[in-house]
Amino acid sequence: METRRLQEMGGGTALVSLPKKWVTLNHLKKGSVVTMEVLPNNYLILYPYKQEASEVKQIEIQYPPEYIKLLINKVTGAYLTGYHLIRIQGKSRITLDDRGQIKKAVRNLVGLEIVEEDASSITAQFLLEPTTLTPEKIFRRMHLIARGMVRDAIDALVEKDKTLAKAVAERDEEVDRLYFLMVRLLRSAAQDLQLSSKYGLTAVDCLDYRVASNVLESVGDSAVTIANNIDRLPTSLSQKIGETLKRVATSLEEMQETAVKAFLTKNADEGRLVVNRYLEVTEIVEGLTREALDLPSTLGASMLVIASATGKISQCNIDIADLATTMYPMIS
Predict the structure, then answer these.
(1) Beta strand residue intervals within the chain, DSSP E
(2) Could you tell me which of 136, 135, 219 has the C-alpha nearest to residue 176?
(3) Other residues' Cβ atoms within 10 Å of the Cβ of residue 172
(4) Pairing state between β 121-126 and 112-118
(5) Which residues contact 7 (CB under 8 A, 6 or more apart)?
(6) Which of 55, 105, 141, 188 has the smallest C-beta neighbourhood within 10 Å, fewest atoms?
(7) Where residue 115 sits, what CATH number does that domain have?
(8) b/e burial code for range 24-38 (CB count within 10 A of at least 16 → b)
(9) Which residue stretches of 266-296 are H helix?
(10) What is the pLDDT of residues 296-325, one digit of tens each?
(11) Number of other CB atoms surrounding residue 161 within 10 Å
């Protein structure tokens, strides 16, 4: 790391010399134009105004692998680490079953499309322009889907609606797809100061978005856990339990809305409001747990799973709010 002392010209203009090595590496000379951007944390980044088009980041994955799941894992890993072109090259023809699994994996990755295919190879390319997306937009979308999943999962249980329960599971796949896209963008921004500047994010912001998005993904998983219990309920729930679960759904919706608002605005007051909802939900969950112990074994076991999942969702909302202001001393 180098340090430079500022010099002052007439009129208060401050000057600082550039490292000769950096100037040489970027082929700059007298009269060259450079671009300066101020980051949200007041750091200044400097780069040449005209840069050569960056080389397309690509990777080749060999087929057949030891087993197909390993290949799919490599494709997903290449996507998350920012590769734009992913080529699966076979030493032999790709089987029909393996081809189907590869295509399904590609469809689960937002922005990745198959652009070339023959008997022994498949090439997929990331076609979205990163600057047209922002982590905030993706996060808001994840939040809206996950929040609706929780409400619908509980409604499906109370109303014994298997179609609605199935829809909850399908929407979880969309949350997963958005989470993978979020990870890709955040990793790219962490490695590219220009991109992070366009997003208006600091390194800490990137880390916070990664954590918060992972928490929302867990909310979706818990909603699926609740919905899946519809087949394990031998009878319809009692009116009392149904009303209690509906009340939990409302509290969780409001809790998540407040937690997300606190996270996006970094508003500590909003974050502390989440605690009130958390305590309310915790009390209800503890009541459901006690009631479950008095129910017939199969129904009681399902209610314990449901109570545990709702408790986990409320904890997830605390985790999101904690990124705006420290929450845990208030709920311990």
Answers:
(1) 7-8, 14-15, 34-38, 44-48, 58-63, 85-90, 112-118, 121-126
(2) 219
(3) 22
(4) antiparallel
(5) 14, 15, 16
(6) 55
(7) 3.30.110
(8) eeeeeeeeeeeeeee
(9) 268-292
(10) 888 888 889 999 999 999 999 999 999 988
(11) 15
User: Both 74 and 197 in a single domain?
Assistant: no
Both tokens of 149, joined, read: 């999943």
Question: What are the residues facing 122 on neighbouring strands?
Answer: 88, 117
Distance CA 287, CA 294 (A): 12
Q: Are residues 199 and 257 in the same domain?
A: yes
Q: Where are the alpha helices (DSSP H) in 1-87?
A: 20-25, 68-80
Residue 91 located in a structural domain: yes
In a shared domain, residues 297 and 159: yes
Residues 6+ apart with CB under 8 A from 254: 277
Helix (H, G, I), strand (E, B) or coil at 158: helix
Structure confidence at residue 11 as a pLDDT band (50, 70, 90) = low
Question: Can you tell me whether residue 322 is helix, strand or coil?
Answer: coil
Q: Is 168 exposed, middle or buried (0-12, 13-18, 19+ CB in 10 A)?
A: buried
Distance in angstroms between the alpha carbons of the first and the last residue of the chain? 43
Query: Which residues have a Cβ under 8 Å from the Cβ of 297 and sit 6 or more positions away?
Result: none
pTM: 0.84
> What integer best gives the mean pLDDT of the chain?
89
* CB contact at 8 A, 320 and 260: yes
Q: Which residue has the tokens 């394990």?
A: 232
| Tokens 């479950």, residue located | 292
Q: Whole-angstrom Cα distance, residue 211 to residue 217? A: 10
The three-class DSSP label of residue 95 is: coil
